[in-house]
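Provenance and format

Records in this collection were gathered into a single text stream. Each protein contributes a sequence line and a token line. The two records reproduced below are adjacent in the stream.
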Amino acid sequence: MKKTLLLLFPILLFSCNKDTFNSESAVFTLSGFTDTGCKEGAKAKGTMYHDVRGEYVNYKVKKGDDGGMHIYFDHVNSMFNCGSDKIWVETSKEGNTIRVHEIENSNAANCYCDHDIHFEVGALEKDDYTIMIHKNLHEAYLSEPYAQFTVKVTNDSKGKYTISE
């Protein structure tokens, strides 16, 4: 009996690995969404395509409690109509492409303002992912991406994608 326990102990000890991530049972989700609302002093009259300054996306990758990798996004100075009642984000994943849809429920005021949007997506395997950001109303699902960049998902990777300086 002691020999059996001594032989089984190392097998049991090393078969439990916290670093194991089962991608087949993992669910891709969006969480942690926050929006600053219209930033003070960030309003512009007229067309949406005014001289935007300082729009960028910061991202960082961390391992989640589920064992998968998660990307934390900060979209800084993302422009929306200042008459919007609600702003939200929807995401989808197909293969190694992650689509981010930034959507507003607009009352179509004749001004625009910058928002900072924060959210997290995961669980992901370590790999390279193409991030496509689509803007505004539901029609954005059919449009070309507003911004597109690649994120290398590894332990504690981070970066910045500049949309406009």
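Adjacent record:
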Amino acid sequence: MLQLLLLLLLLLMLLLLLLLLLLMLLLLQLLLLLLLLLPLLILLELLLLLLLLLLLPLLLLLLLLLLLLLLLLLLLPTTAKATALLLLLLPLLLLLRLLLLLLRLLLLLLLHCYCYYFTTTTTTTTTTITTTTPTTSTTTTPTTSPTTTTSCLTNTTATCTTTTSTTTTTTTTTTTTTTTTTTTTTTTTTTTTTTTTTTTTTSTTTTTTTTTYYYYYYYYYYYYYYYYYYYFYYYYYYYYYYYYCCCYYYYYYYYYYYYYNYYYYYYYYYCYCYYYFVYYCYYFFYYYYFCYYYYYYYYYYYSYFYYY
């Protein structure tokens, strides 16, 4: 009778352990999906991290329950131990799967990826002075004609070059007077010859500022999981292109906003990303909407800090 009660208690605890493990697996799968679909919301990430921390005591409780089941297993007769071990095999596998999933979620939160950009500016100044016929100046008329040309980013390059060319033309007029005196026995003749020489000095100063914009992205290196967990490939594939798209559209948004203030270009690339990746997630537009606001805030903060 005692053995029968122990066996029933073992079965009930085993059923409770299975239910808790399945519940935790479902919850972690949902958290993983949310984290992959909404990777840019910092608040959500903090909430997910808090939930994971709350799940740790529950996981410890499951381990204690499993140890208690093993102790009860020792009290069973030899004939019932083999059956109990087989029944405990499934919770052990689920618990191992739960630990792996929890570890992956923690890595996702700790190794989170954001898109950044930074600029490097190189300024080159070239001064060319050309002078013809050096003479003594009597009249100087300087004229300056600055011109600025900008060659900026295209679809394939990330370099914006601004060339400022300032040409200063100085006109120098030199007057040379030659006096010739001819004396004869009867008259004295004085001949004055005036020679005017115009010299033009051209000074050209060219300043070239080259600003290179770097946009890059980090993504999680889960290539090994492609071979072991093939059904997760869809999430990682979407996740990789999701970040690429965010960086791509944000880069063009910043460029066109800063130089031309063309908002419709931003909208074009925004929709381009949406239509291109709608195959991977039906709610992509909704999540991308949050992505836009997050990066708009980041850009505004960066601009304010830069100008400040």
